[in-house]
Amino acid sequence: MVHFVGAGPGAKDLITVRGAALLAGADMIIYTGSLINKELLEYAGENCRMYDSAYLDLDEVAGLYRDNRDLDIVRLHTGDPSIYGAIKEQMDILDKEGIEYEVCPGVSSMAGAAASLKTELTLPGVSQSIIISRTGGRTKVPPCQELSALSAHGSTMVLFLSAGLAYKVRDELTAGGYDEDTPAAVVYKATWDDEKILRTTLGKLPEEMDAQGINKTALIIVGNVLDGEYELSKLYDKDFDTGFRTGTGRQSTDS
Ligand code: SAH
Questions:
Q1: Using CA atoms, how far apart are residues 44 and 204, in angstroms rounded to an integer?
Q2: pLDDT, tens digit, for every residue of 25-84?
Q3: pLDDT value at position 247?
Q4: Is the shortest distance between the CB of 30 and ligand 1 below 6 Å?
Q5: 233 pLDDT band (50/70/90 cuts)?
Q6: Where do the structural domains in the chain lie, given as residue ranges?
Q7: What is the pLDDT of residue 153?
Q8: Ligand 1 geometric centre to CA of 240 (Å)
Q9: Which pLDDT value is given to residue 132?
């Protein structure tokens, strides 16, 4: 059985309880060495075999699955495996081989970064949507999903895999309609001991990232939620009735 496990953003105690238990019971762990905090491997038992997937290609990982089909294998992916996790291609191989698997979710670095920034990514009257995306690099994005096209809504942008392409990010977002003075933040290694936080504006983003030497393992967040006016939530408005509380009679549909 293969367990795809979300490791969380970095801090050892931000893996789920289930994820830690799966590590403790694993015969073999294949981890994404370039992004995973090695302290997480301390959850493993003494005789567990470990492989850093940074040194393996897809065929080699498939070979490990095939040759050890009777073992409990944890494939440890950073954050939550469903976001840029490259798990689909592995699951397709496991389906072909007839090897069982399951997925254990994790805390995405998006949530880790928002917590480090002490920010809410959805604020009433400012943005009620989050766009999770990236600028195209070696992996291209479909043309209708260029950042300039996604900018039309002025929603909160959370950009993965783009820290080395910050000039392109600024060009695309400003071309799409974000003002240069839109607040922007970068969180490098969110929740790790050497985390760095940069708060700036879209206009100054790439130069400030250069100045701080941040070009990988970082999220770029852009949007007015980072700073500015907002409306109070309806859910906690004293005038609104909710399923749990009677206000002055107006109905809130938020729950
Ligand atoms: N599945 C992961 C994302 C994997 S893609 C998740 O849910 O977080 C790898 C990208 O994730 C990196 O390029 C970076 O943009 C982001 N990332 C991963 N860990 C991070 C961290 N601790 N802090 C900031 N960004 C991180």
A1: 43
A2: 999 999 998 899 999 999 999 999 999 999 999 999 999 999 999 999 999 999 999 999
A3: 72
A4: no
A5: confident
A6: 2-107, 110-226
A7: 92
A8: 39
A9: 98
Mutate to test the pocket of ligand 1, among 75, 87, 109 (most ligand atoms within 8 A of CB): 109
Write the CATH number of the domain with boundaries 2-107.
3.40.1010.10
Segments in 191-253 forming alpha helices (H): 205-212
**Paired sense of beta strands 183-188 and 218-222, if any:** antiparallel
Distance CA 227, CA 214 (A): 22
User: If DSSP codes are grouped into helix, strand and coil, which group holds residue 2?
Assistant: strand
Per-residue pLDDT at 240: 73
CATH architecture of 110-226: 2-Layer Sandwich (3.30)
Instruction: Report percent pLDDT > 90 for the chain.
Output: 84
- Tokens in use for 158? 């959370």
Extract the tokens encoding 30.
Answer: 């294949």
Ligand 1 atom at minimal distance to the Cα of residue 107 = 7
Tell me if residue 221 falls in helix, strand or coil: strand
Q: Which atom of ligand 1 is nearest to the CA of 10?
A: 22
* Residue 189 CB less than 6 A away from ligand 1: yes
The verdict on the CB of residue 218 being under 6 Å from ligand 1 is yes
